[in-house]
Amino acid sequence: MRPYPPSTTASPRGGRFISFRCLSLLCWGLLWVVSGCGLAENHYLLIDQSLAAHDARRADAIMAQAESEYGSRNRLLYSMDRGMTLHLAGDYVQSNNLLEQASMEVERLYTRSIRTETAAFLTNDNMLPFEGDPYEHVMINVVKALNYAAMGQLTEAVVEARQIDHRLNVLADSAKEKDGYREDAFARYLTGVLYESTGDMNNAFIAYRKAYDIYEATKGWSRTPMPPMLRADLLRTAEALHLTTEFEEYRHQFPETRWVSRSDQPNLAQVVVISYNGRAPRKEEAFLDIPVSLSALQLVLLNRGVVHASNRQERRAADSVLYGLNGRVVRVALPKLMPQKTQVAQESVSLVPKEGTPISATSELVYNGTALAERALSDRMPGITTKALARAAVKFAAAEAATRGSQHAVNKGDAPWVGLLVGVLAHGLAIAFEAADTRSWRTLPDEIQISRLWVPPGEYESRVQALMRGGGAAQAGATRPLMLRAGETLFLIERVML
Q: Where do the domains of the chain lie?
């Protein structure tokens, strides 16, 4: 008979002590995992409520108080979330400070330690630092540029426009998926508006032309048709640059389009209104339970119909216990996108002079955040799925090894029950630790719309009213007094409604 190691054969009491110690540690770990170790949802709910009440400062205060919830692995996410709430609150300087931290963190995260990767593989991807998606990286620079533009610092805004150009050019060269996210029509369009506002007509025309091509190429999945005002922008800049061939080409393509000639603009002021509508989509977990025996299949089917938990944590705890008892269920957790579409169709923007007739324009859609998030997740899903399946297989094998190992590590008479308990806990922990990475930049809007108005210089009041998808108009937002000078471009940021 094979002798037992001396350390475990001193007495049955000693063997049981060791076993109970191990089991207590495993139980503690199970309770910790199922209690939830990801970011809390509460602060996002409170932020949404504050924004719905048009109280962006309170939304930012809530975000500031939630900083400790993010932790070191989510420094990038906090900088992005907080940078956006500060932007909406009108604190453009501090917003840029946070977004600059985010930009530096993006560059830092290109390298990652092997230790962190290993820990994530044995648990879940929430153990990894949040990296964000490429479209979110582009939006960091977009919001920074809008911060500078809103402060009237157009030269600094153009610097960010060049950063956007650089980031998109690198992305286009390095993107692996031919049909994936590799360009951004809205970002290109915004750079065109910024270049033109500083008189750089050549770069403005290049940016407008790129935006036009991207809108046309991606309209199938981006659900963002080319905004009609872009046609006027192409005609105006081509005319100003004396690009006769291009001008005639666009005039032939857009025979109904009217535009403000560049020669008339020195006598006019331009107002650019950036409207944010709705909430960015959120991510939830979708569980795939893979039975490896007939009894496990029966348990999974029965569990889906019998267990009714009041929340996600309770459900996970119940699953961990039941599947741990069976020991033949492998769980894979995958992220799924939950759109939070806005009910706003457009904005009606009016500039009301002290004397004279109001000048109005209707906003045009330039950015669909839900479509971008869906594309980003679709691009990443094959890799996420492959990694999750491999991780689940390793966890299952480790749980089986722990069961067999525990039976050899204790007295012969204790082996069956110790092996059972260790197996229950090892398989239960494998289930409990499995979690999808549901982190994303949640403080972004669902949609961005732009209105552009050229008006004579003078004193005005700006008024923005949301037009709803089901018809009718929402209550008009607050008015703003404006003093406009000839040749000036003024940027206004509007958070319309959820």
A: 14-36+287-337+381-433, 42-282+338-379+439-497
